[in-house]
UniProtKB/TrEMBL annotation:
<dbReference type="InterPro" id="IPR013402">
    <property type="entry name" value="CHP02569"/>
</dbReference>
<dbReference type="InterPro" id="IPR011009">
    <property type="entry name" value="Kinase-like_dom_sf"/>
</dbReference>
<protein>
    <submittedName>
        <fullName>Uncharacterized protein (TIGR02569 family)</fullName>
    </submittedName>
</protein>
Length: 298
């Protein structure tokens, strides 16, 4: 299992949303990023994002990740297919100020009903960053999302003969039967990895007359079509999309197995974080459809 087996999940990560919601950007942070307007909390995300005029601020989730992402987005060429939120340097020249990061506000709103447009936008973004090497900070992540992604890709060990985590916190509870069913139909996938955005559906903004904007880059080292599968699974679980949303992208390589991994990723993340068990009702029909699509175990 290599280096991934040594990374334990932080049990406190399931309370991350609550701690972020309590934080407001202090005056010294606003000054550091040149924000002069009063900050207003933005909806969505993890509850900790604020807008002050044309500046969007949020608590940093890992200094190395913020600096890596900011250096790339600051110089990524403009594209006719997508916009990005350019990062803002603090007065010190760093991309961070007292644990906060900032970016230029971009026009638009998410529209999770437009899953096909989200997938197309994500594909264009992934083409633009396909040349980037794998960042080292991915090896040290210990949050529920990292757990879910590693479990989905067989880099951890799950209960009862399926790959399971060596850390102190494991996905289980109400999610256990669904995860077990998905793990039973998972098969090897041989596709090239690259850096991708693993949380596209709510982080592509649409505005009339402008290309879609990609924000809040959650970096993973996986096949680009897996990121597309995550967006499709999110649309089916949370936003009422039918399974036809998945079928429309069935031409993508290893699509069925990527749907399996996308569903494991989301379900395991939710379970290990210790959030409410209510979403199991939303996941169950999607899990059945995905398993039916890939066929029985052999």
């Amino acid at each position: 299992m290599g280096r991934f087996a040594e990374v334990a999940v932080d049990p406190s990560a399931g309370r991350f949303n609550e701690s972020m919601e309590d934080r407001r950007p202090p005056a010294e942070v606003l000054r550091a990023f040149g924000a002069t307007a009063d900050p207003v909390r933005l909806a969505g995300g993890k509850g900790g994002t604020w807008r002050a005029g044309d500046v969007v601020l949020k608590p940093a989730e890992g200094d190395d990740a913020v600096r890596w992402r900011s250096e790339i987005l600051a110089t990524l060429p403009e594209s006719p297919c997508f916009r990005i939120a350019r990062p803002i340097r603090a007065a010190t020249g760093d991309w961070l100020a007292d644990g906060w990061e900032a970016a230029c506000a971009v026009a638009g709103q998410p529209d999770q009903r437009r899953v096909d447009d989200v997938v197309r936008t994500g594909s264009a973004f992934h083409e633009a960053v396909a040349h980037l090497p794998r960042p080292g900070f991915l090896d040290t992540r210990s949050d529920p999302w990292a757990y879910g992604e590693r479990l989905a890709w067989d880099r951890l060990r799950h209960r009862s003969g399926h790959p399971e985590a060596s850390g102190p916190t494991r996905a289980g509870g109400d999610a256990e039967p669904l995860l077990g069913s998905l793990l039973a139909v998972r098969r090897p996938v041989h596709l090239p990895d690259q850096i991708v955005h693993g949380d596209l559906l709510g982080n592509v903004l649409f505005a009339d007359g402008l290309p879609p904007a990609v924000i809040d880059w959650s970096a993973y080292w996986r096949p680009p079509a897996w990121a597309s599968a995550v967006a499709v699974v999110d649309a089916m679980v949370w936003h009422g999309a039918g399974f036809d949303a998945a079928l429309r992208w069935s031409h993508l390589p290893a699509w069925g197995q990527l749907l399996v991994r996308a569903t494991i990723f989301r379900l395991a993340t939710w379970a290990v974080a210790g959030w409410t068990s209510e979403p199991m009702d939303a996941y169950e029909p999607v899990v059945r459809k995905v398993i039916g699509y890939v066929g029985p175990t052999v």
